[in-house]
User: What shape does this take?
Amino acid sequence: MCGISCIVGLQPRSQHPSTDQRNGNATHNGNARQALSKQLDESLNMIKHRGPDSRGQWISPDNRVALGHVRLAINDLSPDGAQPFHDGEDMVHAVVNGEIYDHEALRASLQGKTDYKFKGRSDCEVVVALYKYYGLSFLSKLRGEFALCIYDARTQLFIAARDRYGIKPMFYTQTNGRLLLAAEAKAFLPLGWEPEWDVGSLKDAGWNHDVRTLFKGVGKVRPGHYLTCQSFDQIEMRQYWDIDYPDKTIPDPRSDQEMIEGVRQRMLDAIRLRLRADVPVGVYLSGGIDSSVIAGMVTHLVKEQEERLGNDKETDRVNCFSIAFDEDSGFDESSIANRTADHLGVKYYKKHMNEKELAARFEDATWHCEHHNPDLNYVGKYALSEVPQDVGFKVVLTGEGADENFAGYPVFLPDYLRETDTAYPTNPLPYSEREAQCIKTEEDASAYYKSVGADTSNRGPSQARRILNDITTISSMTAFSVNSLFATWTQCFGLCDPQLTIANSVDGRVRDMITEKWHPLHAAEYVWQKGHLANIFLTCLGDRTELAHSIEARTPFLDHHLTEYVNGLPPSVKIRWDADKKQFIEKWILREASKPFITEELYQRKKHPYSAPTTYPEDGPLHILLSGLITKEKVEKLGFLDWRKIDGLIDRAFAKKDPNAMRFAFTVAQWVVIGERFGVKRAEPPLEYGV
Assistant: This one.
């Protein structure tokens, strides 16, 4: 993985000197070029944690395009793998963040069709050759996680693209007549960007569910999309891939065993591809089935099929990394991970996290994530990524994406039960039982969210739910809202309904599929992946906390060859009703596909979400830290919160053990940290609103 920062001048052509003028004013042009190079280098400094091994930049002869790159060397460690990349005619230039799997096959195919001369062995170099042959259609050829920028000087076309699930980030903004793009928003700070809060996005959760972020005017290239800037003027964003599901009315003719084997083989293939690197490769291991089956399959591939694991630094044992909370916290799964590690015979590294450790990393982890999270699990993930770094690893495999694709979250249950699964005729769940269980699981979901400090008043009928075929998953996705803390003047943004933000961010074609074609479970999986997966789980629990410590995480469960197969399965092989035990088995087909590679304990275990504790003692490290961050002066400096609604929050969180107040306190404290670290301008009411 790497870091990207790019600049594209958007001024009209008339404002740029002609070639003759530039030749006659070489000194001025040289000074401008030097200043641009210095700016770009300062921008790269802000994200140097993403690529500590080397950096490079390219600036067009007319100074209108600048590409910058910091490198975390994973494949082809030689200088030939350094970026930016250029074609032989020096007309197509690219910077790439991520990993392109199957690049050897792509390279061989291109060498049989073109006379393109590759410089080195880097997986990312294939991007330039693919673009030159296929044009914009090259994106559909890529398999992996990536964010990239290409400039084609022949056609004056600039392209910025992001992988199918948004595993790798790409932000953009316009400042002082320039289009800026980067892997993290902090890279914009040396480029003239002056951050302001996007209060409307904070209130309606647009930062989590559409193109917006916490910062006004800063957007993100959405997963499966690419942005183009033609001739330094026209900027557009288009989609090249989307999640799809089968028609719910058509029975699936496949047997259970055929589907299980189909999942198993695709999982093994996705993992096999992700073992390839010129550096050591390890595995993140928790107490759940997702990471455990990855560890089991890696061990099988290395020991039984003699697959190479990274650079084979340690071929005797697979290396796994884990995190542990205090045993009495109720959130510790390390004992199960220990037993899994012993069963597999892997080398196991574990980092213990207590309240002091969480408090010590809170501010730095927040700075790296660039958005809030009502749970401290992101601080735990930030600490976890220190472990492989400390023992010399650069690459880990991780289990993100399994719950989203195999329906592992309990919030999916009511939507699975909302309609009969006619695609699976042998479903053991009777109609009468389905109706009763739908009511029960909805009540259970409401009770769970209430117990962890969430708002459950949003679970009734709504326009947003009607748009999305009445799924309640969107109610769960928006359960943690701090809108009650906002200043009165923020009412100028109108009715800010996060559920409606989710519904409205789905395009018309997909809304029709949700209401007419897809089963409600698949509709729920779709909106969850477009929102929470892309903008929380793959950011503060993924890329941002991993790359903060220069760790590349690979996500086999988000390999699109695997997910497209899984998306085509009937809902009832993802969630299976056990008629004998009168209970549901989540991720049933994943369990069956994983069975040869995991322990019986994990095969039988129910899903436990990765979370950090939500109650902490008075006068402890977190109480002291948050008391210093949540003060009247600091809260009023934000501008969009009402101190009168926040005063007493710390007491309710720590003295009264109110989990809702604790999550509110986490969020407000994170906004304070972001505001201070980024130097965000105080939010003010519009002039027409008055005081």
Summary: The radius of gyration is 25 Å.
